[in-house]
Amino acid sequence: MTEVDYYELLECERTADDATIKSSYRKLAMKFHPDRNAGCKDSEAKFKAISEAYDCLKDPQKRAAYDRFGHAAFKNGGAGGGRGAGFGDASAFSDIFEDIFGEFMGGQRGGGGGRSSPRRGADLRYDMEITLEDAFHGREEQITVDVSAACDTCEGSGATPGTSVKRCTTCGGHGKVRAQQGFFVVERTCPTCHGAGEMIADPCTACRGEGRVDKTKTLTVNVPPGVDEGTRIRLAGEGEAGLRGAPAGDLYIFLHVQRHSIFTREGTTLFATAPISFTTAALGGTIDIPGPDGELYPVKIAPGTQSGREVRQRGAGMPVLQGRGRGDLVIRVDVETPTRLTARQRELLEAFRETETGEECPQTSGFFQKVKTAFGA
């Protein structure tokens, strides 16, 4: 039987480096793979041949022996051990498969893949209710949370003090095991250590080998000025402890601002409705509005102000979160009609009505003029 040169089979020069040989084999293996050439005996034979060639040349020792002795190196107990990489073994193809999907399958070769990352603790959520004044000034709040924290007895290792954690013998400490099924390498979590890569012969009695226990913790939360509904504050490392010394998760504080009796808020702008007397609306004046900082802000009312008019007070709103300056305070005027009049007040109003000409309230007179015109009165 004629033995074809391995380099010729892989279409490579004898001086080709490992990367070139691998790249060439991958291209040829995909081309002649039996799944792509169902029932073609020539493709099956070609696939066997290039797999055998790559199985030899990818191994530095086998390649050195082949370069020196040729095919004779693998006959009669030669340097190659007499085993080719035939269709049934497909070790070369699985190596290429591993190269293509290595990141998905775990990254490292041999011994069952890369070791799983430590299982980080879960993030936790805490909902905190604050007042608008708290949101304006900021505050420091003490909260109490129930979390899984690192075990003090074993310092999070999960092993009884004085004992050690041993490498899992099933996966060699990688946390994953691999099994070859035909041309494919299947990777799964190690059934012995459940992905930890370690085994505890003598578990800590305080945490039952988990490295964490349930605790109640008191934490300080600093609420900065300017926060709004839904603002999230992150406390790094204050979430659930990781399994057996793995990093802890984070604790997220979600802020909820209580409804205020006077103000509503849109961003840094505050809105309020202020009732004023009809005499103030007619004659003008000044009203004092308390801001969220406790200061009184004088708001000027122009003569003839109508109900619904808005007056803006610059810089009297909410502070900018993690910035400078403040928003505005917007006052919506609501003119109130008096309902309780003294005899003297009624007398004065009657006298005022007798002097009305219609020009005092142009909107009113204009409306009734339209009514008369519409109905031909």
UniProtKB/TrEMBL annotation:
Keyword hit for Chaperone: yes
InterPro entries: DnaJ (IPR012724), DnaJ_C (IPR002939), DnaJ_domain (IPR001623), DnaJ_domain_CS (IPR018253), HSP40/DnaJ_pept-bd (IPR008971), HSP_DnaJ_Cys-rich_dom (IPR001305), HSP_DnaJ_Cys-rich_dom_sf (IPR036410), J_dom_sf (IPR036869)
Residues that hold Zn(2+) 1 according to the record: C151, C154, C204, C207
Sequence ranges assigned to domain J in this UniProt record: 5-70
CXXCXGXG motif repeat ranges per the UniProt record: 151-158, 168-175, 190-197, 204-211
Key words of the record: Chaperone, Cytoplasm, DNA replication, Metal-binding, Repeat, Stress response, Zinc, Zinc-finger
Zinc finger regions, CR-type: 138-216
Amino acids binding Zn(2+) 2: C168, C171, C190, C193
Biological role: Participates actively in the response to hyperosmotic and heat shock by preventing the aggregation of stress-denatured proteins and by disaggregating proteins, also in an autonomous, DnaK-independent fashion. Unfolded proteins bind initially to DnaJ; upon interaction with the DnaJ-bound protein, DnaK hydrolyzes its bound ATP, resulting in the formation of a stable complex. GrpE releases ADP from DnaK; ATP binding to DnaK triggers the release of the substrate protein, thus completing the reaction cycle.
Domain notes: The J domain is necessary and sufficient to stimulate DnaK ATPase activity. Zinc center 1 plays an important role in the autonomous, DnaK-independent chaperone activity of DnaJ. Zinc center 2 is essential for interaction with DnaK and for DnaJ activity.
Self-association state and partner proteins as the record states: Homodimer.
Protein name as catalogued: Chaperone protein DnaJ
Organism: Sphingomonas aracearum
Classification of source organism: Bacteria, Pseudomonadati, Pseudomonadota, Alphaproteobacteria, Sphingomonadales
Name of the encoding gene: dnaJ
